[in-house]
Amino acid sequence: MRKVLSTKVENIGQVKQNLIYLGKLFDYFILLDSNDNAGYESLPPSYLNYQFLAGVGAYNKSLLQQEIFSSIQHFTQQIPDWYFLHLTFEAKTETHGIPTKYKDLIGFPVAFIFSPVWLVTAKNNVLRVQYPPNIDDSEARNFLNKLIKPEKRRLDNLDKKSPINIQQITFKEYKQTFEHVKDRLSRGDIYEMNLCINFFAESVKIDPYSTYLRLNDFSPAPFAAFYKYNDLFLLSASPERFLKKEGNQILSQPIKGTITRGKTADEDNRLREYLKNNQKERSENIMITDLVRNDLSQFAEAGSVEVMELCGIYPFRHVHQMISSIRCNLRKEIYFSEAIKLAFPMGSMTGAPKRNALKYIEQYENFNRGLYSGSLGYITPDGDFDLNVVIRSILYNSTTGNLSIPAGSAVTIYADANNEYQECYLKAKALIEILS
């Protein structure tokens, strides 16, 4: 049973910054940040339970390479506690039997779960620090004081000492791959496929801590994350939820449909309405909504799968997004990790039918997605969880200097190669600018 310290704070931003820099001292660190529900102002508060959660240090941990989801069940049942979890896209080898032929140049393991030494949560500006019973209370008070202490820190400028040469696939190369996918679509082998490209750099030196703070300031998102796994880093401005479990209710919120924000209020409204009424974008979203409904039906109580909202339009700092919300009640005999397995990988990052889409992703993409298109999130002692979709992210290996910014779009029979290529660039643009 964890012990708890709590205090009311006003400057949540200062606490998050202090946390980020404390993370330098630990091999394992994670911050999951809702940015005060950024982009989700019109949804009920219960959709996002915390202002942020953080796990500092690893109290218990397990590298999950085989039988991933049964291992999650064993680990969480054996020692009920708070856990943080990552799943790379490669976990599809277990869920669908489709391995990746390329090496992951960043290097995240397929899956990893850990219980933190320090669990830090913020809700309604109340900061709570939870810690194991073997830690002295005075040490916990000292840790809490470090979090709330006002302190100006100098942001490192390591990434400004050398220009970053971002490599990307050319439009000509993209179009060749795109035409192969369109051929599969015309044959009816698939109805939609998420086709991704990789913006990549080698021998890069950046400071991931200050880079994340700049990213989060520039592009706040409700499922943002800073994650450190030894020398590997994820800096994410994800707007998308994969799955959330609360009690026996499961919620999924796939995103399909993106358009840039306008420079004026009138232009912004016109763009929002254009996205809202764009039949191509709506059809893509509806296809994935149907796929998610099918995924959820594998573990749902009969008759409980419900589309709460279809093709809702939500504003973010740089783009409008089309988001649908689907929920169900989890059958009592199914453990939560089995539900994750049956829904993974998320339909918004694969396509429909899912297994065929995964097969062609491996055939036509020229890189290993790694943690991109995977998931990151938390699990409570009661077996509730909330998992994001790892998109709009910088992945970085601080030892090799490899840096990756993948981006993708949904390709359907009506898709245009130039538009899809530009959508990929739009999604990566903010991240590239952060590094410029």
Structure in words:
The chain is an alpha+beta fold. It has a single domain, classed as Anthranilate synthase, CATH 3.60.120. 31% of the residues lie in helices and 31% in strands. The chain is built from 11 helices and 19 strands. The protein has helices at 12-22, 68-78, 92-96, 137-148, 171-187, 208-218, 265-277, 279-297, 336-343, 354-364, 417-435, and strands spanning 3-8, 28-33, 52-64, 83-87, 111-123, 126-131, 192-201, 223-229, 232-238, 241-246, 249-253, 255-260, 306-315, 319-329, 351-352, 375-379, 385-388, 393-397, 403-411. The protein has a 19-stranded antiparallel β-sheet that branches. The longest helix is centred in the middle third of the chain and has 19 residues, at 279-297.
What's this model, at a glance?
The relative contact order is 0.19. With 436 residues, the protein is α+β, with helices and mostly antiparallel strands. The model has no long low-confidence stretch (mean pLDDT 93).
